[in-house]
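Quarterly update from the structural biology core.
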Amino acid sequence: AWEIPVGILNTYKPWAAAMTLSSLAIQRKGYDLRYGIDVAFIAAAHQAKKPVVSLETVEEQVLALTGEGVPDSIGIFYIKSTLHELQLLDSAITMMMKAWKAGDIPLFRQAMDMDSEPTDARDSLMMKELDERVYISRNRKMAETGEGLLAADRSVFIIVGAGHVLWKEEN
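Predicted structure, tokenized:
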């Protein structure tokens, strides 16, 4: 049991509740976000006094779901699909971690797709819109920023989340 008082989520916007539930699912499996690979590399860079440049800001990440022109239906679809997927999250997270440790890209993609089957034509359209906002358009922007860093005459080390590298579509 998740043991989350439902009333707590009532104060959240739908997209924020969905993100909170996803984070809690990861923590339930025993993974602590404070020990993520990105956190470890950022700490090492700071300790070595190397500059850290973000490919996108936290504000830009949030704007993918809340920015101008984002219909409320996207946030509602996001929480609806997250609630539907809760029963699969434990299995998907276990599979992702196993795939990540083994470097098994097909298994990682399978785990990411495990919970993303739209139930009807409307859900299919909403899924495409959400994917465009959360992954595809952000990936393009991060790639452009990365290209700019690589064009400069200096060495760079770029880290992005696995979901941005191993997406359904190459972008």
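Helices lie at 6-9, 14-28, 37-47, 58-66, 72-102, 105-113, 121-151, 162-165.
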